[in-house]
Amino acid sequence: MNARRGRVRERLHRRKVAWTFGLILGIGVPAAIGYVRHRQALQIGRLQQQSSDSARERESMEASLALQKRISDLRAAFGRAHAASQPHYLLLAALAKATPTKIALRELSCDGDGFRIRGHVYEKAGRPDDPLIPFCRDMAMAGAPWRFPGAPEVADGDFIWRGVFQPDSAALPGSAEPNPPSAIAVPEPGNVAQWERAVSAARAQLPSRSDFDDGSQGWSRHWIVLAQSADRLPDVELRHYALAYDHPSLGSWSDIVETLRRLCAENGVTVDSLALAAAPDGSDAFAEAQITLTARLRL
Fold it and tell me: Is residue 31 a part of any domain in this protein?
């Protein structure tokens, strides 16, 4: 009897164990499978997010590079079409007004934004009443479209004074001459729309080739063309000229100033260099009177 009861309890125990194990399998296996699938889904999600982030980074980098290239191209186009105003003729007019009879100007040379004045003081050089003192004061007047970084270099009455033009600055104090209409505000570095408007405005102000040829007849009648070349670019034509005044004398000064005034007022034209040198024998003549210039023309 006891043995029989023992076998019954053992069978019940086995069934209970089997039922419990089956229950564990029924619950645990799907849970394990769900957990594995969840981990896989998370991993796939992370990979997809990383791929999406990488794609956005590439797109952002490509957009940034495209923007930089666009701005670079616009800056280059603006540089080809725009010419800052130049005060060369104002410098000549100021020299004529400020130079006393005790000072002789022997040379004026301009190259790009820099210039050099060379001359001689005939009386009282180095004294407290040296005529070079008021000459320098008058030439370095406040508001002038040039500046002198230092004092003149003086030796035995000879002097050399170096200065720098300040493009697009105001005219001389008291002068009625405004800046030429070509003055265009330089856009903000990263503003594409401003650069596009500036390039369009600069190109619109350029003279056509026929207009420039017609207009140049008014100032070139006393000038000989020493050299001429042209660069045909996709958006503009650049013409380069080297001119020399035909038999210049000191009486030609006003005509030279007028030529420079017209050139400085011409949209798209820049004076690249200017060389005026008095004859070494002190005669009423120039040993040299030459101009090189660049004209930007609309196609």
Answer: no
Specify the number of domains making up the chain.
1
CA–CA gap between residue 299 and residue 232 (Å, rounded): 9
| Identity of the residue numbered 62 | E
Tell me how far apart the alpha carbons of residues 237 and 239 are, in angstroms, rounded to a whole number: 6
Domain with 179, as residue range(s), is: 88-298
Handedness of CA 169, 174, 180, 181 (dihedral sign): positive
The gap from C-alpha 284 to its chain's centroid, in whole angstroms, comes to: 42
Q: Convert the pLDDT of each residue in 118-158 to its tens digit.
A: 999 998 877 878 999 999 999 999 889 999 999 999 999 99
pTM of full prediction above 0.90: no
Q: How far apart are CA 264 and CA 295, in angstroms?
A: 11
Pairing of strands 269-278, 103-111: antiparallel
Mean pLDDT of 40-58: 76
